[in-house]
Specification:
single chain, eight-stranded mixed β-sheet, Glutamine_Synthetase, Creatine Kinase, Chain A, domain 2, ligase, ATP-binding, ATP binding, Ubiquitin-like (UB roll)
């Protein structure tokens, strides 16, 4: 059965209304291997807030004893797939009251609470690559696969079938996020065919991680309907192509206030003193994935040289031109990879610029 047939078949069942006031809650969480997972359950009524959603659990497949992991609901969104009263529930995962596996939300939330008075706002620019069912970038000309180089330009924000592939999935994801209540702020085609980006935020504190996790889940879920494989690998195809990142835009009450440039300069100075600590959280493998992107990918900051500049997209940290013009606002850390943990990156950033740790 092809994708169109599946969508037509599912459409019939979406018209069915649950008995009474029941609702389906889809719990979204990160498993031991760092993969986004989901499971659903029936609630007796539509939850009005996250406090109405009960904890749940899932079993770790590689152990029989003490295998239960608790799913703790932390953020509630409307379900753009099942519609109606149904919900998406972003969860923290714990075992015996402690964070499970790679889950970093608890640590991120603790740091954000310490700095609540500084009113940190974070936005993230999530890049990703669309692949076909054989694992090849969607729509790439055959000469690329024959190792015949082409110019890597003209694709960013491109229009036209010779420049863009996968727009339908990008648009579907955008609309689904808006319906769900995710703070998605934009989307665009990126610098390589089949490479796309969406932006989430600005969000205050730990909420950036919750909204990023929801947005990533929705993208992966949408990709099922289009028969497209989405990868967050920082450099999915070896060669002279643009790397795939997750640029982080950061501001505080001080940087947004009159004379905020001095606070931005102070934050950048602190970042320059903790380069290894930040590179270590740029991807789930302690920087190994991101190393491929920063060393081999085009238009990426240099791995071994921390630089910053106004409107400089080759730098580790960029101050947007309009921010420099008005003298206040935010700065952009361009180092994190596309597969970074948003909670971990946000935590490390706030530890450095707000706590000087």
């Amino acid at each position: 059965m092809d994708v169109l047939q599946l969508q037509t078949a599912l459409g019939r069942y979406l018209k069915i209304k649950p008995e009474g006031s029941k609702a389906i809650a889809t719990y979204i969480f990160v498993n031991y291997y760092g993969s986004i997972c989901a499971k659903s359950r029936t609630l007796s009524k539509e939850p009005a807030s996250i406090h109405d959603v009960p904890k749940w659990s899932f079993g770790v497949s590689d152990r029989m004893v003490d295998s239960d992991v608790t799913l703790v609901p932390v953020a509630l969104f409307k379900d753009p797939f099942l519609l109606g009263a149904n919900k998406l529930v972003v969860c923290d995962a714990t075992r015996n009251g402690q964070p499970f596996g790679p889950n970093k939300r608890t640590a991120c939330e603790q740091v954000m609470r310490l700095c609540a008075d500084q009113e940190v706002q974070i936005g993230m620019e999530q890049e990703y690559t669309m692949l076909d069912t054989e694992g090849k970038p969607l729509g790439w000309p055959i000469r690329i696969h024959l190792n015949v180089p082409i110019e890597c330009r003209g694709y960013i924000c491109g229009v036209g079938s010779d420049r863009v592939h996968g727009r339908a999935l990008s648009d579907a994801h955008y609309l689904a996020c808006l319906y769900a209540g995710v703070t998605i702020s934009g989307t665009n085609a990126e610098a390589t065919i089949s490479q796309w980006e969406f932006q989430v935020g600005p969000c205050e504190g730990v909420a950036i991680g919750d909204h990023m996790l929801a947005a990533r889940y929705i993208l992966l879920r949408c990709s099922e309907d289009f028969g497209i494989y989405v990868t967050f690998d920082p450099l999915p195809i070896e060669g002279p192509w643009t790397g795939t990142g997750c640029h982080v835009n950061v501001s505080t009450k001080a940087t947004r206030s009159e004379g905020g440039m001095s606070a931005i300069y102070a934050a950048i100075k602190k970042l320059s003193k903790r380069v290894p600590e930040h590179l270590a959280v740029c991807d789930p493998r302690g920087g190994a994935d991101n190393q491929r992107r920063l060393e081999k990918g085009l238009f990426c900051p240099k791995l071994d040289n921390f630089t910053w500049g106004v409107a400089d997209r080759s730098a580790a940290v960029r101050i947007p031109r309009h921010v420099a013009d008005v003298g206040r606002g935010y700065f952009e850390d361009r180092r994190p990879a596309s597969n970074c943990d948003p909670y971990d990156v946000a935590k490390r950033m706030v530890e450095t610029i707000c706590l000087d740790q």
